[in-house]
Write a structure and sequence with these properties.
Bound molecules: adenosine-5'-triphosphate, magnesium ion
Helix content: 25-40%
Largest sheet: 9 strands, mixed
Order of helices and strands: EHEEHEHEHEEEEEHEHEHHEHEHHHEE
Number of domains: 2
Number of strands: 16
Distance between the termini: 52 Å
Structural class: alpha/beta
CATH topology of the largest domain: Rossmann fold
Number of helices: 12
Radius of gyration: 26 Å
CATH architecture of the largest domain: 3-Layer(aba) Sandwich
Shape: elongated
Strand content: 15-25%
């Protein structure tokens, strides 16, 4: 049994991993601990770890810094700066009083939330009452309000030790990164695609990103915004490199511009992107693609067009935002940090005036054959540049 060393620490709670069978849970917990360790190490922090059921404790480094890093790790439900005590109701009560004295501040009301496992001669309620009475005696003027308190004090008592804390910092939840394989995320400078990539990461997928650029001179460069999105995403997998391939599809767009009928431009463009993605994914041993598509958002994202577009991919395409409202995406983008209040002009120079909202695959195939765009794929992919982001910084890989 792990006995917790008394003193200041950071407590991390992890949730869904607990629904798994024993071997899977062990594997997922190990991955979670490894991810935490790498993220902390990449920030120069090497706290000691103690793993208990549903909780991991980190001791011996500045708690604020440790908590800030851990609150951005997938698989973590929340983190709290806490005080660890010996497994004894008296010790826990003393630590709770000390914490309330230090941090209850101007609070007029408080509540104790107690949790007890094991035989300490009292129930959880009795523990809460004991701690509550001690706080009432130590902090004059404060009263108990269990329904809507200004200040909440959490007390946990187990054979492994006591834990006291008063603030839970929410973390993203989900599954530990790396437990669900790898996905190739199609990344743009826009709002949707980084949110989609983040959601796949949240569910445990490692991401490799692909950006398709228009080529020189065609509208404003999409690269700076895409690199910005990549850099911010890398803050959610600290300690691990996040790779991006940037493919210059200028030769493809030149052919597209020559089309007599421009109504199918977006369908052709998105099919080309999925083909490029499939090729890259196969080269990198990646099993699926991910996009920020959202039902009905633009002409290329009607159900009919998405079916035709999907058929160009040789591997599954995941679209985590398919049912979101725009406002829900924006709210999530703000939380992730990718929402740009002043994004500048990101409009695509190739979008036609009246894009088709439906298309027939046989007609689209005929157009693709007449343009000969498939033949361009290997060259465009072969010339792609590679960037790597780590902890918010991006570098270009040579050459
Ligand atoms: P976003 O959807 O990310 O806000 P967007 O509006 O420019 O950007 P859409 O036209 O909605 O993109 O395209 C749908 C999806 O196609 C994007 O979410 C993204 O996954 C992918 N995509 C779009 N443009 C590019 C690009 N230049 N390179 C790679 N993928 C792209
Ligand atoms: Mg979009």
């Amino acid at each position: 049994m792990t006995v917790l060393p008394p003193g200041p620490a950071v407590m991390l709670r992890y949730g869904e991993v607990f629904l798994k069978s024993d071997p899977v849970r062990r594997e997922f917990t190990n991955t979670l601990v490894r991810n935490c360790r790498e993220a902390l190490r990449s920030e120069g922090l090497s706290p000691a770890e103690r793993i208990t059921r549903g909780r991991i404790f980190f001791c011996g480094e500045p708690a604020g810094q440790v908590a800030a890093v851990l609150s951005r790790i997938f698989g973590v439900v929340d983190v709290a700066e806490c005080t660890l005590t010996p497994p004894d109701p008296g010790a826990v009560t003393e630590a709770a009083v000390a914490r309330a004295r230090a941090s209850a501040g101007p609070a007029k009301t408080f509540a104790v939330r107690a949790r007890r496992e094991g035989d300490f001669g009292m129930t959880s309620q009795e523990l809460a009452a004991r701690v509550g009475s001690a706080v009432l005696a130590a902090c004059p003027g404060i009263t108990v309000d269990l329904d809507n308190p200004d200040y909440e004090l959490y007390v946990e008592l187990r054979q492994t030790g006591g834990v006291v804390y008063d603030r839970r910092i929410p973390a993203p939840g989900g599954l530990p990164l790396g437990t669900q394989g790898r996905v190739l995320a199609l990344l743009s400078p826009g709002i949707d695609s980084p949110v989609a990539a983040w959601l796949m990461m949240k569910r445990g997928c490692e991401i490799v990103a692909l950006h398709v650029s228009h080529g020189d001179g065609e509208g404003p460069s999409t690269l700076p915004g895409t690199l910005r999105n990549l850099a911010i995403l890398s803050g959610w997998c600290r300690g691990f490199p996040l790779r991006l391939f940037v493919a210059d599809a200028g030769p493809f767009y030149e052919k597209l511009a020559g089309l007599h009928n421009q109504r199918f431009t977006c369908v052709l463009c998105k099919r080309f992107m999925l083909r490029l993605g499939t090729l890259l994914a196969r080269r990198e041993g990646i099993a699926a693609l991910c996009t920020g598509d959202n039902l009905g958002q633009v002409a290329s994202q009607t159900l009919a067009n998405m079916v035709v577009i999907s058929n160009a991919a040789g591997i599954p395409v995941f679209r985590p935002l398919i049912t979101f409202d725009k406002q829900e995406i924006v709210t999530l983008a703000r939380k992730i940090g990718t929402f740009d209040e002043r994004p500048g002009d990101l409009s695509c120079p190739f979008v036609p005036g009246v894009p088709a909202t439906t298309s027939r695959e046989d007609e689209i195939r005929t157009l693709e054959e007449s343009l000969g765009t498939d033949a361009l794929l290997p060259g465009i992919l072969g010339n792609a540049l590679e960037y790597v982001a780590c902890n918010g910084g991006v570098t270009r890989r040579s050459p």
